[in-house]
Amino acid sequence: MSCTRRESVSQVAVLGSPAYAVTSEIAAEGEIVNATPLGSDPHYMEFTSSVARVLEQSKAVIALGASADRKMVSELSKPKLFLLPEGLEDPHVWLSPKRVLAWVPQIQSFLDEQFPNTKNVHAQNAEKFMAALQELDANFEKLRGYCFVTQHPAFTYVEQDYGWRVLGTLEVGEAEISPKQLTALMEALKSEQNCLLLLNPYEPSKTAEMLSEQLGLPSVDFDILEVATRSYSSIMAENIDGVLHALRQ
N or C: where does the chain have the smaller number of CB atoms within 10 Å of the terminal CB? Predict the structure, then answer.
């Protein structure tokens, strides 16, 4: 037990799946621990005893900073880094590689402060990660003007930064759109030559199935990192490769 505690107090706890996926790209081996409950929704993250234990035993905390995880971390008397500004209505900043590029120096600097002996590792990892983000940025840019329907309303920043044309979304909040909204979306789709449906691979949607069947709307999985189990660059590269491949069909 004491051995586990000694190990955890030497680590930075990371709360929020997107935050962990990004931070893991920069940290040296063994420096961070994922405090995010497995499979938890970042909109409604629960403060369980296991989460509290990891946070309390860590030397510092990096948190996404959405409303749910910000409340868990704010009162801790240890160094903290929030990646999102407070009060942000739409937290899905991480879906834009352009925005994540701005996080890299913040995370690198924070890790340098906590682990000064591995600054060179952070610098090397950050340089490699930024190159991957720049490649993602270029690939996202290739899709400017293309039409999409998204299952989850998470693509606001992608629309703003890359000009993706999101014709509609199948969810409002945590519920699927109403029959009236669906009818309006289907009418709008009839005038589109090519539109791609971006599905959440972790959340089946009957509305998405109906759109694919009735309109022949092609679809592809797009992991929005709300349950991230791998590095940011690997997930996002798979996402964009899938979209580009689907549009070439």
Answer: N
Q: Is residue 230 very low, low, confident or very high in pLDDT (cuts 50, 70, 90)?
A: confident
Pairing of strands 195-199, 175-176: unpaired
Please name the fold of domain 142-248: Rossmann fold (3.40.50)
Nearest by Cα to 62 from 117, 99, 114: 114
Percent of the chain topping pLDDT 90: 61
Pseudo-torsion of CA 77, 78, 81, 84, nearest 10°? Answer: -20
Amino acid at residue number 171: E
Q: Answer for the pair 19, 70: CB distance below 8 angstroms, yes or no.
A: no
Q: What is the DSSP string of 47-100?
A: --HHHHHHHHHSSEEEE---HHHHHHHTT-SS-EEESSPTT-S--GGGG-HHHH
Q: Which residues does residue 63 pair with via DSSP β-bridges, in sequence order?
A: 15, 82
Cβ atoms 148, 165 nearer than 8 A:
yes
Lowest mean pLDDT among 26-35, 118-127, 190-199: 190-199
State how far the Cα of 16 lies from the Cα of 34, in Å rounded to an integer. Answer: 8
Domain boundaries for CATH 3.40.50.1980 within the chain:
2-139, 142-248
**Residue 13: beta bridge partners?**
33, 61
Greatest alpha-carbon pair distance for the chain in Å reads 65
**Domain 2-139 in CATH: superfamily?**
Nitrogenase molybdenum iron protein domain (3.40.50.1980)
- Bridge partners of 34, per DSSP, are 14
Say yes or no to pLDDT of 72 above 90. no
